Amino acid sequence: MTEEKFSECIQAMNRGDKDGLRQVYEEYVSYIYGIVRSLLASREEAEDVTSEFFIKLWEKSDSYRAGNGHKGWMATIARNLAIDTLRKKRREEPVDFQMRAGSGEEDCTEAASRALHATDGKSVEDEVVGSLTVKEAFSLLKEPEREVVHLKIMSGMTFQEIADLLGSPMGTVTWRYREAMKKLRRYGYEEA
Amino acid sequence: MKKLDEEYKKACAEETPDLWNRIEAGLPQKTEQTAKEKDRAAASPQTQSSASKAGTGTQTQAAIRKVWMRYGAFVAAAVMVLVTVPGLLRMTQAKNTAENAAPMSVQDMTAAKENTTGMTDTEGIAADSADTAFADAFPGECDDAYSEEAENGAAVENSSATEIQPGVSSMELKVTAVEEYDGYELVSAVSGDGMFETKAVFPEEVKKKLDFTLTEGEYYTFTLRQDTDKDFPYCHIIAVEQKGE
Q1: Is B20 on the interface with A (CB under 8 A)?
Q2: Cα–Cα distance between B176 and B14 in angstroms, integer?
């Protein structure tokens, strides 16, 4: 969605037109959910926070000021909401991004880990390359690496914008991205 | 090799639940009046951009005014309590010292003890009142200190022990940059040990009062106030003094 289109949606929201929010929702729900999910272990909590994000967007649509990158703005709000939730829950241990597709499905980390440790006389790499789904491959990245790759792929923001958003130096962000890409290439994925 | 972007977007789309009904059910109604107000406030990007370039600073002033109108009374009450409690405490201590210095009968001692206890209770109540006033002034601020600092992609301040707590604080900081950002004059400053870093709005009215200009690399004593508007990511400079003043 372009900046202009997003501004139109925001103006529609300001007028009380839910269609503006609906368009933003359809375009960005995966992006926002991914950001939130990368910080929260529980899918239910991620759903709550994602819903809260869009409700807040509706309520605070007048606080948006065009021209500074709506994707970064939304990502910052989503991250803050997720971090607030984490604080409220007072979780101490770091949370892994485990993209579990359904309640009956097995944990991606476990699946990927099993794949990595499967030997049967073959090298680990032979075993792994080409066999991991993108979810499994992502579950093997470190949380900060996943976050950077998610933002890069889903928002198309520049590394500088991502660095500003995460409050990290740009060198750190690019390094995390490169490290993630190295790993992902090993699992058979390449950048477009 | 599989295409990462395509596969990942596809996977994300598959994983994302449909939350629209839930969101729609939770949306508060926007009244016509509110909508009109917001329409007035919402300007086109070009208009906002030119307004920013013009550097009128009206947005900053409006934001500050809004915050003061909303929380000024609470802040004043909290400050009053914070100022009076230490004074009462000192008076109590002085009184006790004087009484202790004089010879005491058992009755005197009992009375003194009761007085002390009485004052401690009062002090407790005063402290409680301060906490309450503070909590009232900044509801949810502690939990939400991180919350919604975002303003059009502005940098997120990292949460750390050095984060400015809600309210006013004064500290000596080195100016690292003074820049125009989105209509605000922003001062970036860092503490001597590098543990604390902040960006603060430098309001025109504060600037006018100074007989010096902020120089990058120089240390100043800043009095900063955390913005209570959840959507506003920066602190406000409410006073600046030159080092050694």
Answers
A1: yes
A2: 46
Domain boundaries, chain A: 3-89, 108-186
Query: With contact defined as beta carbons under 8 Å apart, do B60 and B191 qualify?
Result: no
Q: Which residues of B touch A51 (CB under 8 A)?
A: 19, 22-23, 26
Tell me the chain A residues in contact with residue B3 when contact means C-beta distances shorter than 8 Å: 189-190, 192
Q: Residues 6 or more apart from A103 whose CB is under 8 A from it?
A: none
What b-and-e string marks burial along B96-118, b requiring 16 or more CB atoms within 10 Å of the CB?
eeeeeeeeeeeeeeeebeeeeee
Fold of A3-89: Rna Polymerase Sigma Factor; Chain: A (1.10.1740)
Instruction: Give me the percent of chain A exceeding a pLDDT of 90.
Output: 4
Residues 85-124 of B with CB under 8 A from A: none
Give the gap in angstroms from C-alpha A8 to the nearest C-alpha of chain B.
Answer: 9
Q: Which phi and psi angles does B123 have, rounded to 5°?
A: -60, -40
Share above pLDDT 70 across residues of chain B, in percent, rounded to a whole number: 53
Number of Cβ within a 10 Å radius of residue B205: 11
Q: Measured between alpha carbons, how far is B200 from B226 in angstroms, rounded to an integer?
A: 9
> Using an 8 Å Cβ cutoff, are B154 and B233 in contact?
yes
Question: How would you write B212-230 as a 3-class SS string?
Answer: CCCCCCCEEEEEEEECCCC
What is the distance between the alpha carbons of residues A162 and A167, in angstroms, rounded to a whole number? 8
Residues A104-124: tens digit of each pLDDT: 444 555 555 555 555 444 555
Q: What is the ipTM metric for this complex? A: 0.71
Which chain B residue has the Cα nearest residue A60?
B231
Residue pair B146/B108 in contact by the 8 Å Cβ criterion = no
Q: Is the dihedral of CA A183, A186, A191, B4 positive or negative?
A: negative
Q: How far is CA A58 from the centre of its chain?
A: 21
Class of domain A108-186 as given by CATH = mainly alpha
> Is residue B164 very low, low, confident or very high in pLDDT (cuts 50, 70, 90)?
very low
